[in-house]
Amino acid sequence: MHIAEERIDPADEGFWAGVRAQYEVSSNFVNLENGYFGTQAKPVLAAFEGYNRLVNAETSHFYRRIYPERYADVVRQLAAFTGTDEDELLITRNTTEAMNILIQGYPFASGDEVILGDHDYDSVIATFDMVATHKGLGIKRVRLPLHPESDEQIVGIYERALTPRSRVLLLTHMIHTTGQILPVAKIAAMARDRGVDVMVDAAHSFAQIQYGFPDLGADFVAVNLHKWLGAPLGVGLLYIRKDRIADIAPLYGDASFKAGDMRRLGHFGTTPPGPVLAVADALAFHRGVGGANKEARLRFLKGRWMDAAAGLPHIELLTPLAPERSCAIGAFRVNGMPSKQVIEHLFDVHRIFTVERSINGGTGVRVTPHLYNTPDDLDRLVEALRGFG
């Protein structure tokens, strides 16, 4: 693809048809559950398969003599993409692993308090609960409104939860169940003024919306590269601000590196090079589409179904309608019908694939289009939703 330096209209179906042609997806159903992991574009998949063949053919010669520099080049590209230094980044296998390195390595003391949200990712909450049991931590949970009035309302909820014992505040940048985008930088600034560290789970926001890690104002950020960047399954990324690296005790330790060296935290043993090498190709494809264009198109597709569904009396939207408060991900409930029944009906009758999620003490249906989806796909969903009435 060419490098898309110019801004493209998110409704320019000629341009987006060209992007769509770069993906090979099943025609057996309409996939509107792209939040789990991303589909690799054809050039990324082809490169990934080539790397696997290369590694299989050259085995330890490649791994010992060639891979270290190739790996370093991928890290350099990620540093440029995220606005960080290379020695502040560690490639992991996913966000959950990156968060485990942070949570289990953080210098908690008995009696410290952690602030979590009911909307945070289940595995991350479970890790905090486990560490809290072992280290004698207090856990406090907050609940956010589905439709906030302002950033200040959200900041205030977190601020009121803090106490003199609060040590760490977990923030999910883009809530995985509803797609709501939190004002992380504002919350982080408030927490910093109170002497509280912020850990950011940015699994879904990374490469879906545009930002650099420093923009979030947090010392610790974990992301997935196999979601919206479109790299192969099995790659995530951990960012720790340089002067905080030594504070984290290694979970997968490598004592050959000094304290304060990010590599000390990443002794994972022999791992597949292919997914890591293909990150460079995923970055190239992302640049070819253009980050701003991608974000606008995903928001356009989300709005295509949500704006129409907002007028249906039997549909409850669980995602804010204000464009800046979400991007690709949206969620809804059908009044009087279990969400599990809704997703089964959508698939069995309309061949539309979605997923049920736990949301604010209940359940809902998450809808997540991708760049290969068309407006017709979302119109098909809207017609199905009308039928529930």
Strand order of the largest sheet: 2-8-7-6-5-3-4
Main beta sheet strand tally, sense and closure:
7 strands, mixed
CATH superfamily heading of the largest domain: Type I PLP-dependent aspartate aminotransferase-like (Major domain)
Order of helices and strands: HEHEHEHEHEHEEEHHEEHEEEH
Q: Tell me what portion of residues adopts beta-strand conformation.
A: 15-25%
Given helix and strand content, the structural type is: alpha/beta
- Overall morphology: globular
- Classify the helix fraction into a percent range: 40-55%
* Total tally of structural domains: 2
Q: State mean pLDDT (0 to 100 scale).
A: 96
Rg (CA only): 21 Å
Poorly predicted runs of 5 or more residues? none
What is the CATH class of the largest domain?
Alpha Beta
From the N-terminal CA to the C-terminal CA, the straight-line distance is 43 Å
DSSP helical segment count: 10
CATH third-level topology of the largest domain = Aspartate Aminotransferase, domain 2
- The count of strands amounts to 13
Supply the CATH architecture of the largest domain: 3-Layer(aba) Sandwich
Structure, explained:
By secondary structure, the chain is of the alpha/beta class. The chain has 2 domains: 13-32 and 290-387, Aspartate Aminotransferase, domain 1; 48-284, Aspartate Aminotransferase, domain 2. The chain has 10 helices and 13 strands. Helix 6 links the parallel strand 5 (166-172) and strand 6. Helix 2 packs across helix 7 (273-289), helix 3 packs parallel to helix 4 (122-135) and helix 8 (291-309) packs parallel to helix 10. The longest helix is centred in the N-terminal third of the chain and has 41 residues, at 42-82. 41% of the residues are buried.
